[in-house]
Amino acid sequence: MQELKLIQVPCLILCGDSDILTPPKYSQYFHTNIKDSKLHILQQAGHMVMLEKPQLVNQYIQEFIESL
Pick from 3, 16, 28, 55: most CB atoms within 10 A? Predict the structure, then answer.
């Protein structure tokens, strides 16, 4: 966790608001400590956001790639 500040590449962080395995507070911590990161917390989703909200996940990935 202390080495997150060493990450020097853009990062996309996706998390479900109902994720029990990796609660949103960890994603927020990653976002705060990774300089060039983008965070999206998906509503009404758990740990498997890519299966629960595939269209939204794809949209966020596409937007992230296009922003680079």
Answer: 16
Cα separation of 51 and 10, whole Å?
A: 24
Q: Which amino acid is at 68?
A: L
Q: What residue ranges define each of the domains in the chain, with the CATH number in brackets? A: 2-67 (3.40.50.11320)
Question: DSSP string of 5-57?
Answer: GG--S-EEEEEETT-SSS-HHHHHHHHHHSTTEEEEEETT--S-HHHHSHHHH
pLDDT of the chain, 68 residues: tens digit per residue: 889 999 999 999 999 999 999 999 999 999 999 999 999 999 999 999 999 999 999 999 999 999 99
**What tokens appear for 67 in the block?**
């922003």
Structure tokens at 21: 């395995």
